[in-house]
Design brief:
Distance between the termini: 89 Å
Shape: flat
Number of helices: 20
Oligomer: single chain
Largest sheet: 6 strands, mixed
Helix content: 40-55%
Strand content: 5-15%
């Protein structure tokens, strides 16, 4: 007869549990030292069908038992394993998770190719260890053929970007969303299938990767899918992005959207530049080209949004950009990632990156977009070398860290970026309105950047950044950008001060 767990278990019952599990913490399997107290908890929660019997009780170390809070042991163990997976990197997709499961021997294979044959009514899938037939349907809007199926992980993969192919997967995995769905699917059904396409004999999922990831952690190895056979990839990609951005309940992180839209736009841009049609190639010409492309569904606003994303992405994703590790993947800054793309787009990029398409011939010396990218990267790297290289959120009592937190708060950087632009324009003798609108859209010399460095040194060395905590500066930084800019100027942080000329 099973022994029921009471409020306190007896020494005899503890011996039974230890004989079964050993002196190991059930959360991670690590050994619990003899001098450390043992604690006991349910493996599967009572609310989830777990019984209060010794068969459902396991030992835990004191640290993990406190850390798990009210989570059942099984869920807490998955949470720890999930944290280990997300420690592998920031931009992780379903493909990375499948590879992780395979490396951990939790999955034998994934992403295997299949031979695909079809007629008007049926599709046949086959490889060395899988064969199946499914009825075909046709989309009433596009005529594209697709089928519904429950498919094994062995023939599924994520529709990620590859070296010579733009993937349709628009998101990276989000830790909280995967874990919440993992718990949800313990009791609730999956309402909609994951969506994918067939490309070169591979089945690639671009929608529902969080769903699939959560089911993987629930030990499911087959997934309900809707798969397109031969869709127009460009139209499908535009539709997919709109579904995950404009019409989504969970909106894109800014940096993810910029990475996705910028990458797609960049590929289209390069195709346009190589187009041999006898026309002069320019950014404005490219925007007209997109507007007049057959089947184009993008509005002017969509095209402008993607163009800006391309510009931001060209700077943020450059390998020479030292600030890249400090830019948050989410929409919010954090202790370890104080910058966000949204913050930069409203501050430094708003002041030093011209975000309108230019009419300059791309084949002429007057086209300076690449130089503008390089100049913005050089500015970010100067900020890194002079300040952000010292960013260390663990030094909470350090005056230098207090100054950095003030300098690179969202409102602060938006306010002083405008002062910085005015000072840089003064140092570079840019008086014309068009030049001031595009201060970095030009060749800049080492001598020019030596002047810019001096301006930044004056900005970052301003004495008020190191004022005592909870003072007047902190009150103003918590306010709006315009009021903060006025306050900064009232305290001497002016464009003239930054340029070294006074005002």
């Amino acid at each position: 007869m099973a022994i029921t767990l009471r409020r306190q278990i007896s020494d005899e019952e503890k011996k039974i549990v230890l004989a079964r599990h050993g002196r190991q913490c059930f959360a991670t399997g690590h050994a619990i030292p003899d001098g450390e107290p043992l604690q006991y908890d349910h493996i599967r929660a009572f609310a989830s069908g777990g019984q209060s019997e010794l068969d459902n009780i396991a030992p835990m170390c004191e640290h993990h038992n406190k850390a798990k809070g009210t989570l059942p042991l099984e869920d807490f163990r998955v949470k720890l394993e999930l944290e280990n997976f997300f420690d592998e990197g920031e931009r992780l997709t379903l493909r990375h998770l499948l590879e992780h499961f395979k490396a951990k021997k939790m999955l034998q294979a994934y992403g295997e190719s299949v031979q695909v044959t079809s007629n008007e009514n049926k599709v046949h899938l086959e490889n060395h260890n899988y064969t199946a037939d499914f009825p075909l349907f046709a989309c009433p809007r596009t005529g594209w053929k697709y089928f519904y199926a429950t498919l094994p992980a062995s023939i599924l993969n994520s529709d990620d970007d590859e070296e010579h192919r733009l993937g349709l997967q628009p998101r990276f995995l989000i830790f909280n969303k995967v874990f919440e769905l993992f718990r949800h699917f313990q009791h609730c059904p999956v309402l909609q299938p994951s969506v994918g396409r067939i490309s070169d004999g591979r089945i690639l999922l671009f929608d529902g990767q969080h769903k699939a990831a959560a089911l993987l952690w629930n030990n499911q190895r087959e997934f309900e899918c809707k798969i397109y056979l031969n869709p127009d990839v460009r139209v499908l990609n535009q539709t997919n992005i709109a579904a995950h951005d404009k019409f989504a309940q969970t909106r894109f992180f800014s940096s993810v959207m910029i990475l996705k839209l910028g990458g797609q736009f960049g590929n289209d841009f390069e195709d346009y530049r190589r187009l041999e049609d006898g026309t002069t190639k320019s950014e404005r010409g490219f925007m007209d080209y997109l507007e007049n492309a057959p089947g184009s569904q993008m509005t002017r606003g969509d095209r402008n949004k993607r163009f800006r994303s391309y510009l931001y992405n060209s700077i943020m994703e450059d390998a020479k950009n030292k600030t890249r590790p400090l830019v948050s993947v989410s929409n919010r800054s954090s202790a370890t990632e104080p910058l966000t793309v949204d913050m930069l787009s409203k501050s430094l990029f708003a002041c030093f990156l011209y975000t309108e398409p230019v009419a300059d011939d791309m084949a002429s010396d007057s086209y300076k977009r690449e130089q503008e990218f390089s100049n913005n990267i050089a500015l970010l790297n100067l900020l890194y070398d002079l300040a952000l290289d010292s960013w260390n959120p663990k030094l909470t009592a350090d005056v230098g860290q207090l100054a950095l937190a003030r300098q690179f708060s969202s409102k602060s950087i938006m306010a002083w970026s405008e002062l910085l632009r005015d000072a840089v324009c003064a140092k570079l003798d840019l008086d014309d309105a068009d030049d001031r609108a595009r201060p970095f859209y030009r060749d800049l010399s080492e001598s020019d950047f030596a002047k810019i460095r001096k301006v930044l040194e004056r900005l970052l060395g301003w004495q008020m950044w190191k004022a005592p905590k909870q003072g007047e500066i902190d009150t103003n930084i918590a306010g709006n950008k315009s009021a903060l800019k006025i306050w900064l100027k009232s305290k001497g942080l002016t464009a003239g001060f930054l340029a070294g000329t006074g005002e």
